[in-house]
Design goal:
259 residues, mainly alpha, 2 strands, membrane, transmembrane, CECR6
Length: 259
C-alpha cells in the first residue's frame, strides 16, 4: 500500500513540475508573442532527468536534496527572474496568464517540496529520517509560501498601483529569489548516513545567521514599510518573520548547547 501511495505521489510530482515548467515559460511567450521563449522549459531538464534516474534506481533522501538544488538553481529562480524582467508590469489581469495564474503556479513549489521529500525510498525507514522530513516539510513549506506572498505584493502593485516604487518592487523580487536559493542551504546542513540524520554544526550556525540577516529581517522590514507606507496588510507574515528570527536565535543557542 505504501509503495502504491508513493507511486501516486511521484506521478503527481512529475505532473506538477511539468505543469509549472510550461506555465512559467508561457508568460514571456504570450506577452512577447515569441514562441522561442519556450526554450526556458529546458531549464527544468536537469532536475527532472536526475529525479527520473533516481526513481528508476535508488531514490535516497540525501539524493533528493540534490534534485531540489537543481530545480531551484537552474529552473525556478531563473524563470521567476525572466517573468518579472521580460513581462514585468505588463502582466494583464484580464488574461488567463495573469497575476492570479502566476500565483497558483508558484504555489505549486511548496507542494513539490513535500512530494519530493516524502517520496524518497528511505523517507520513513528510520525515526531520524521521519523526524527530519517532517521538520523540513514544515519549516521550508512555510518559507516558500512566504516567498509567494512577497511576490504577490509586487503583483498586486502591478494590478492596482498601490504606490510601491519600481525599484522597491525589484528589491522584493531579489530578496524572494535569494530566499529560494537559501532553501538549498537548509537542506545542505543535514548529513544523512546509515539511517541517521545529523546536523553539520558550522553549516547550521552560518545558515541561521544568514537567514536572520538576509531573509527574515529584510522580509520583516519590507513588509513593515509596505504596511505603514502603502497600506498593504501583511501582519500575519510580519509576525511569521519575527517568530522565525527568534527561532533562529534559539536554534543557534541549542546548537552551541548540544556540542
Amino acid at each position: 500500500m505504501d509503495s502504491f501511495v508513493k507511486c501516486g505521489a511521484r506521478a503527481v510530482f512529475f505532473a506538477l513540475i511539468i505543469t509549472q515548467c510550461f506555465f512559467l515559460a508561457a508568460y514571456p511567450v504570450t506577452y512577447k508573442d515569441n514562441s522561442n521563449w519556450y526554450v526556458l522549459a529546458v531549464s527544468f531538464a536537469p532536475a527532472v532527468i536526475v529525479w527520473c534516474c533516481l526513481i528508476a534506481s535508488k531514490a535516497k533522501l540525501r539524493w533528493m536534496f540534490y534534485v531540489w538544488d537543481l530545480y531551484v538553481f537552474f529552473a525556478l529562480v531563473p524563470n521567476i527572474v525572466v517573468v518579472f524582467e521580460v513581462v514585468g508590469d505588463s502582466i494583464d489581469n484580464d488574461r488567463f496568464l495573469g497575476p492570479n495564474t502566476l500565483k497558483v503556479v508558484l504555489c505549486m513549489t511548496p507542494l513539490l517540496l513535500l512530494l519530493l521529500l516524502h517520496t524518497a525510498d528511505d523517507s520513513d525507514r528510520s525515526d531520524d529520517h521521519k523526524e527530519l522530513v517532517s521538520k523540513l516539510s514544515y519549516q521550508m513549506a512555510i518559507d516558500l509560501f512566504d516567498v509567494v506572498d512577497m511576490i504577490d505584493i509586487v503583483l498586486e502593485e502591478y494590478e492596482h498601483d498601490i504606490g510601491i516604487p519600481k525599484g522597491f518592487g525589484t528589491g522584493m523580487i531579489v530578496v524572494a529569489c535569494y530566499t529560494l536559493l537559501h532553501s538549498m542551504w537548509q537542506l545542505a546542513e543535514n548529513k544523512l548516513a546509515g539511517g541517521e540524520a545529523k546536523i553539520r554544526f558550522r553549516t547550521a550556525i552560518f545558515r541561521n545567521i544568514v537567514e536572520i540577516i538576509f531573509v527574515n529581517l529584510p522580509f520583516l522590514v519590507i513588509r513593515a514599510v509596505v504596511f505603514f507606507a502603502y497600506g498593504k496588510d501583511g501582519s500575519i507574515f510580519i509576525a511569521k518573520n519575527g517568530i522565525a528570527i527568534v527561532l533562529s536565535l534559539l536554534d543557534i543557542r541549542h546548537l552551541y548547547g548540544s556540542r
